[in-house]
Amino acid sequence: MADSVAIEVRRYRPEEKSEPYWQRYEVPVREEWMILDALNYIKDNLDGSLSYRWACRMGVCGSCGMMVGGEPILTCASYLADHLPGPIRIEPLRGFPVVRDLVNNLDDFMDKLTAVKPWIVREQEQPLSEGEYLQTPEELDAYKQYSMCINCMLCYAACPIYELEPAFIGPAAIALAQRYNFDSRDQGAEERMDHLSRDEGIWACTFVGECSVVCPKDVDPAGAIQRYKVKAMTQWYKSMLLPWGERKR
Amino acid sequence: MKGRSIEPFFWSLFSSGGMLAALVLPALALALWVAIPLGWLQAPGHQHLVALIGHPVTRLCLFGLIALASFHWGHRFRFTLYDGLQLKHLFGLIATLCYGGATILTAVAAYVLWTF
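^ Those are the sequences you sent over. The predicted structure of the assembly is below.
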């Protein structure tokens, strides 16, 4: 294994330069290092001005997603040695505005996420005296896969539609909407459907499928979106053919 | 249904056409281009084929297959032009050409099968 590897980081420091530029660092290679460890080495030893997000180092917080060699990955979950011989190019996630260096502005995603109501919606909460909402293991399995999402946004960076169509609600937000739609305790599917069965909702997706390829938690957002389309289509036909049917209100 | 998209309708044609084509066309290709030329299946005579296609059920199935597969093409081609060539500003024109093309193919299929 090589002793060191060149890492090229796409820097953007608007207070100094109006354009982004590449900066090259020479970093030692350790067998147990992740890409994130190499970035931390740069920050601690070579250039304290480098900015990037990270927190848990164990693939749970979803903060350290970046483009490495053009692919969106969690830098804490990818061995440095797997990217040899280098140079390894590290860029901020594609499709999002860049605040500084490798730090993206997440406002657009946070707004879209909130809009799909990713929480349990109840028409009426049952009183505490009736106890908790019980759920069978089968009911848990119905949504568990989608609940594994850590909001790392790799799926957005991988989605060509999100780049072309910034209004697209996007893979993770739709998968999380499904996570609650499939939850036996939830009653908010109708509200979410109104928001999601729009041109910039599920219908913008053309099933490229890259979101599911890059997802570090095997959430399969592409599958979630296709299931949503089938549901929306059935409801659409019912509402067209049976004006009194299916949809309440 | 206010504010909702018409897209479910076109998507239903697209998805059913894609599924139908994926199921039926490989079977037809295997039978007509592999199994019969290799002699695994006996080639049907001309009279036999004419009688088969002349049957109303065959004609109905062929019509469904051609119509849905055409709309599958139209929908996919529409998004290929939108996203692949980035022509989204020609929204109306492209949709008209793609779904119009699929409608014409469907009409031709209907005419040919009806008058067969």
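The CA atoms of residues 41 and 67 of chain B lie 29 Å apart. The first helix of chain B runs from residue 7 to 35.

Shout if you want it in another format.
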